[in-house]
Amino acid sequence: MKVFSAGLVISTALTAAALALATPSVLAQNLMFGAYDPRQQETLWSEAISLQDSGQHSEAIEKLKRAGHLSRINEGLNAKSQLPYLRAEIASHRALNQLALADERQAYLSRIESTTIPSGPEKVEALLAQAEWHQYALLQDIDEEEESTARMGKAWNFYRRALNESIATYGEDSEELIPALEGMVRAQYLLASHRGIGAAMPGKMDRDLRNYAAGKSTFKRGLSVLVAMQHLNRDRLGVSREIQADDLIRMGDWAWWTGNRMNAISFYQDALTLANGETLAVDTGEVSVSEQAEVAAESDAVEGDIDPSIEVTDATGDMVDAVAPQAPITSKDEESSPSELVTTDNLALELAETDGEPSENALAELPTELFPTFRILNAPVALPAVPGFGPVLDIKQGEPAEGDLVVSFNISATGKAINLERIQFPVTEGARGPERVIRRLRKMRFRPVFEDGEPVESERMTWVFEPKHWAMPRATATESST
Prior knowledge:
The chain is an alpha+beta fold.
């Protein structure tokens, strides 16, 4: 007969007693929650993330919807716990190119965020994410004309609110303001393209109509935001001369994009002055970031070159101007207000008025010492060269394959692709072919190469494009240049 130790017998008895005592509690919990046990949310979340990682987005969406449903049942319709489920669901809709569904869920997400995130860093991130969604939707050209105009207003206003909230959270001297300011710059490029100004944009956004008359006013609006970034970097953050030169190059790019050639060359030459180790004249006025950024908003209100009858209802229910508000748009539940936004004059805006010639009283005394030099503007760059925008054309890196398109060209002193040569040109069946890439290349705008302070034609450059750009699933033959 097998003999058990007294210790083992006692341990077994205690375990059985504990299970017996716990059983009523477990049964009661199951009876209370049943199919809506909130503990299921964590399991559903883990399963959904695993499905997303394996590319099974349709299955992931069902899991995420179930998790969000449980969140609302257990914590209320506006439960904050549903936010990660909504964001992940939107990501899967985007991966499946279900942009209309993603747009609906994004609007619902915005309503929940407005009631559950009152202020602070989390509010800033939420506003930036909302603005970036509308930017993405514009680049994908998912709307009709009127809806596109309204979405333009939403993108701008979410970026403006993000800036206001950033100022309230971090103060006017913080680098945390940069993401919102960069977003406002992107919004100005989008607005310019919508008005027929500029050149080919990333994504599917394309406007054949060109409105050259609006170029000057559009340039001033965008410049005011870029000046705000420049003042923040140079005067508040004390960035390196290389970053200061980058800020001037961005201002030159914007002028170049909007057709203001003389202003563009002036900004590029200022950047070259820094790169050559020399000192720039600067305006002496103390100007806040919020004051600079407001110029764009008030300019839009004055110009009125988009139908003022088109209004946008944002996620909080506030009515805002379709392009830019006359006053900062903030959510109703913010705990503190950002600095008052007012218009101001500055050296860069004066340059816009005088085609690159500043007045004497706007300049400070110039030191004579030299600084270390660095190289800039020695290679052409496709525009818009703005953080947060993808390339207009995706260039293949590495050796070309047999079915790739290979072209060589120069960039002219005016920033256009010229002297195009088809080195390898695939022959395809059907209406879509490599010609669409060449047409888009001709529509692009480039920052030119500079020599001795002036734009010049670039050396020969070669780009390779994969068949995904014309995406016809048929065999191709290849022609080579002779």
